[in-house]
Amino acid sequence: MFDIGFTELLVIAVVALVVLGPERLPKAARFAGLWVRRARAQWHSVKDELERELAADELKRNLDAARQTMHETEQSIRAGGDAVKHEFEQVRAEIDEDLSNRKEPPPSDEAPEPPVDEPAAETQAGPDEPETPAEDHPQSDLFGNPEQRR
């Protein structure tokens, strides 16, 4: 900031001692220190306020850029949706045109008869063959009544 070296400070101190004298020099030094502290505090306050303003400005620019990107994305999505809708309408029109151009066969008065299945051969025992349970199986009945097994 200021290019003041040690020799310049020494010269200023000697001049202050000669001009003010030993009695008023400590009060003047305290007063000068107070002014320097106030100046530094004011400088830091201005610096912090500038940094906050710059951060707020940068945040606004980022927000505007995000809004612009969102708007562009929305426009591209809408354009894509409109293109899909237009294509859908074209396909729908083609299908409607094909259906209207298709000649339908005249409806017949007779309903088609359902196919008749042939009856399956009877596998059950006839009236002259009574069903009898087979008792001489080599495998025993595990789930039956234990008294019947004897």
From TrEMBL:
Source superkingdom: Bacteria
Compositionally biased intervals (Acidic residues): 110-120
Keywords assigned: Cell membrane, Membrane, Protein transport, Translocation, Transmembrane, Transmembrane helix, Transport
Subcellular location: Cell membrane; Membrane
Gene3D superfamilies recorded: 1.20.5.3310
Any one Pfam family match given in the protein's UniProt record, by short name: TatA_B_E
GO terms of biological process kind: protein transport by the Tat complex
One annotated GO molecular function: protein transmembrane transporter activity
InterPro entries: TatA/B/E (IPR003369), TatB (IPR018448)
GO cellular component, one term: TAT protein transport complex
Region of interest: Disordered: 65-150
Chief place where the protein resides: membrane
Record text on subunit structure and interactions: The Tat system comprises two distinct complexes: a TatABC complex, containing multiple copies of TatA, TatB and TatC subunits, and a separate TatA complex, containing only TatA subunits. Substrates initially bind to the TatABC complex, which probably triggers association of the separate TatA complex to form the active translocon.
PANTHER family tied to this protein: SEC-INDEPENDENT PROTEIN TRANSLOCASE PROTEIN TATA, CHLOROPLASTIC
Functional summary from the UniProt entry: Part of the twin-arginine translocation (Tat) system that transports large folded proteins containing a characteristic twin-arginine motif in their signal peptide across membranes. Together with TatC, TatB is part of a receptor directly interacting with Tat signal peptides. TatB may form an oligomeric binding site that transiently accommodates folded Tat precursor proteins before their translocation.
Name listed for the protein in its UniProt record: Sec-independent protein translocase protein TatB
